[in-house]
Amino acid sequence: MLAYDYILSYDVLMKCIYCQQSGTEVANSRSVARDTSIWRRRHCSSCGKTFTTRETSVGDNLFVIKRNGSRQRFVYEKFFASIYFVLHTGKKSDSGDSAKMAKEVTLAVLEQVFLNNKGKEVRTSKLIELTYKELRKINRSVAFAYGTYSEYRSKKLIQMGFMV
Length: 164
Ligand SMILES: [Zn+2]
What we know:
Blueprint: H1 2-8, E1 25-31, E2 38-43, E3 50-55, H2 58-61, E4 63-65, E5 71-73, H3 76-88, H4 95-117, E6 121-123, H5 124-138, H6 140-148, H7 151-159
Parallel strand pairs: 4-6
Antiparallel strand pairs: 1-2, 2-3, 4-5
Helix pairs in contact: 3-4, 4-5, 5-6
The site of zinc ion has 8 residues, from loops.
């Protein structure tokens, strides 16, 4: 999936497992069928050693902590769909435009999750907050629609001082 390629670009910071220097070069890579992970042969320009890494997308390792405290595996498609829905509902705009925008918002949110806590887990309320902020950059009424879509969302956003 395209989204993952973008997220993976963060990985150029990958450190050498032998000498801990960053800036390893990818000698070759291959993706595995029926798996979203990518195997890469990496070469360290500092110590000259070569090693293999297995990279998976942020979404694959990300868990969402629900409001009742339970953990659920993050589903990229589900998250994307919720954003696409609010962007496209009540608009006469092209569905392709909405999809493109939804993808940008999804990636912007995921990137922040990833950079903040290595993408291991995120609370539902944090996802709502980040999504709301990203949507507001595009259009305030869209962000408002997202916030009022469920009672939980609006309650959370009001608590965080985003909506009054
Ligand atoms: Zn090295």
